[in-house]
Specification:
single chain, 485 residues, Alpha-Beta Plaits, 3 domains, 19 helices, 10 strands, 50% helix
Length: 485
């Protein structure tokens, strides 16, 4: 399982434990993210840089790294990193004061912004639709429920017709609701306070979802995505850095790491998360049901891992075959496969791969390597390995770990060739460094995933990430020299 998948499974459990212990989530979520990344160092398929390095070695030396060639170094580095996180790392994170705004679990106070109205018989809204009412309020309110006699309609669609006597439960601040009360004959205000739990049913749920990197909603506002009209899902609130934003929704531009509070039918919520590139992290009554192929999927993946481990198939072929088999048995669709691909990374790789080949074919990598050798010919080998690792770490924090490996592998290979040394130690240094994006939330999806729920600022990551990088270098470089020299 990849880093983001493991983290997505563990995150709700960790958040629940944090609430039980009454501790700030910031002491648990970032360590969880970093630990998931450290675990990826152990095997060939644990992280994409390992696969890139293995393929590069095959292209230039005739034989790729095997499934467990990364284990001797990666396992020791992972253990050292996790021990550091448990013993010291979490103490370096800033304390968050939730005395005024509540703990992270309470960042959305829905009940405080719910208003109950009744449509009068003389109201101009009679015979119109939910969509028309929302448009009147500039799409900054959500109709969470309609009560019509003894019937309760949760998360109604925009085409739902309004009738005289309907009681509507609206979510939104007072300024957004003002157009409804400017005309005294339009609606009547209610006085009851409704429990948010009353807004759930077996079919309708309220969930929290994180805006992931390269999500379709990045840079857009609620108006821009028209979520209710297109998907039948209400956007109730937005939280950033662990605090709910009470600014008017039309002024909020979604950013990576934002947490969205969504209400809708289970199928619609699942669809909107897939389509918009968001990941559900907390299920307020949202039950995850077993999908078709729940037994077939792990069996096929186990076969793919076995084929790669035994060198029956190259790792890239093995896992493409796994995806093909799952599509053949209709466990996943072609649309799901297409949407799961990180196209910005693919485009970046498509640009960097020929750049890397051009650097090699034109002798530019050899020129860079010779320049490094001429400057550092008197320094020990471990210093060069540390330099490669540090450079790879910095690039992975700013770009992405996979393109970092693509760019740094040719330089490492040319450096080893220029010094008449085996290339494996240098490639391993790049692999460890590229898989260590701990200084920023944009270096890896796992870091982005915990940013909103943990209430982290951009600068919080280096507090624990920088000393963790130092630990990785201090342990990784000697291990590489011992195992691969």
């Amino acid at each position: 399982m990849n880093n983001i998948g493991a983290l997505a499974l563990m995150l709700p459990i960790t958040m629940r434990d944090a609430r039980k212990a009454k501790r700030a989530a910031s002491h648990l979520l970032m360590p969880l993210s970093f630990a998931s990344l450290l675990g990826g160092l152990v095997t060939l398929i644990g992280t994409p840089p390992n696969i890139v390095i293995a393929i590069f070695r095959a292209d230039n030396s005739g034989e790729p790294f095997g499934m467990f060639d990364f284990t001797p170094v990666g396992l020791v580095v992972a253990i050292a990193g996790i021990v550091f996180i448990i013993a010291i790392g979490w103490r370096l994170l800033p304390q968050r004061d939730y005395s005024q705004s509540g703990e992270p679990d309470e960042q959305f106070q829905i009940a405080s912004y719910m208003t109950e109205i009744r449509i009068t018989a003389e109201s101009a809204l009679v015979g119109t639709t939910v969509g028309a009412l929302e448009s009147m309020c500039e799409n900054e309110i959500s109709v969470m429920a309609i009560i019509r006699g003894d019937r309760r309609r949760l998360a109604p669609s925009t085409i739902e017709t309004l009738y005289a006597g309907d009681i509507l439960l609206l979510e939104g601040d007072s300024e957004a609701l003002q157009p409804l009360f400017e005309n005294p004959g339009l609606v009547e205000a209610g006085a009851e306070v409704t429990d948010p739990e009353w807004l759930k049913s077996p079919d309708v749920r309220v969930i929290e979802a994180v805006v992931m990197p390269n999500s379709m909603v990045e840079g857009l506002s609620m108006r821009g995505i028209k979520m209710h009209r297109h998907y039948g899902v209400n956007l109730l609130a937005v939280a950033r850095q662990g605090r709910a934003s009470r600014a008017r929704l039309k002024y909020i531009t979604f950013k990576t790491g934002d947490v969205l509070l969504l209400q809708g039918e289970s199928a619609a919520l699942e669809q909107v998360c897939k389509n918009l590139g968001c990941l559900a992290i907390k299920n307020r009554g949202f039950e995850i049901t077993a999908r078709r192929g729940s037994l077939l999927t792990p069996t096929v993946f186990a076969a793919g891992i076995l084929a790669a481990a035994m060198s029956w198939l190259p790792v890239q072929i093995a896992f493409v075959t796994v995806v093909g088999v799952l599509m053949l048995f209709r466990v996943i669709s072609l649309r799901e496969v297409y949407r799961s691909i990180e196209w910005p990374v693919i485009v970046l790789l498509g640009f960097l791969l020929p750049v890397g080949e051009a650097l090699q074919s034109t002798g530019a990598t050899a020129l860079i390597a010779n320049g490094i050798i001429s400057i550092a010919h008197d320094i020990p080998l471990w210093s060069l390995l540390a330099l490669l690792m540090i450079t790879s770490m910095v690039l992975s924090d700013l770009v992405h770990n996979t393109p970092t490996a693509v760019l740094m592998a040719p330089i490492a290979f040319s450096l080893a060739d220029g010094m008449h040394l085996p290339a494996d130690p240098f490639l391993m240094a790049v692999a460890i460094g590229a898989a260590s994006p701990y200084l920023t939330p944009i270096g890896h999806q796992s870091n982005t995933l915990v940013m909103g729920p943990g209430g982290y600022n951009f600068g919080d990551y280096w507090r624990m990430g920088l000393p963790l990088d130092i630990v990785i270098i201090a342990v990784g470089v000697p291990m590489i020299m011992w195992v691969w020299m």
